[in-house]
Design goal:
The chain has 94 residues and is mainly α. The chain is built from 5 helices and no strands.
Length: 94
């Protein structure tokens, strides 16, 4: 019973406390991508504290989550804010 309480505390309660704090610090648009890491941490904690077996679907799901995060964060184009006229031209191509 103690192990279940630990997983519930760390994977659920603390995850959402840290989540809300990260929204305050970096904003919802950047934080929203990483909500999908919660199941990954739940898998890790359940393996450690509950003795759950790590199965193929856990690994495949984790790979898909990291692939999705990589695809949404890689290749971001930074637009310089020095000249608003240039920025307007560049935004049309983005």
């Amino acid at each position: 019973m103690r192990k279940v309480t630990l997983v519930a505390l760390f994977a659920s309660i603390l995850a959402y406390i840290f989540w809300n704090k990260s929204i305050q610090i970096i904003g919802a648009n950047k934080t929203g991508i990483f909500i999908h890491l919660i199941p990954v941490f739940s898998i890790i904690l359940a393996t450690i504290f509950l003795g759950e077996k790590l199965r193929g679907f856990h690994i495949k799901g984790t790979i898909l989550i990291f692939l999705g995060i990589f695809l949404t964060t890689a290749g971001k184009i930074k637009v310089p804010a020095s000249n608003s006229r240039q920025r307007g031209k560049m935004e049309r191509y983005l």
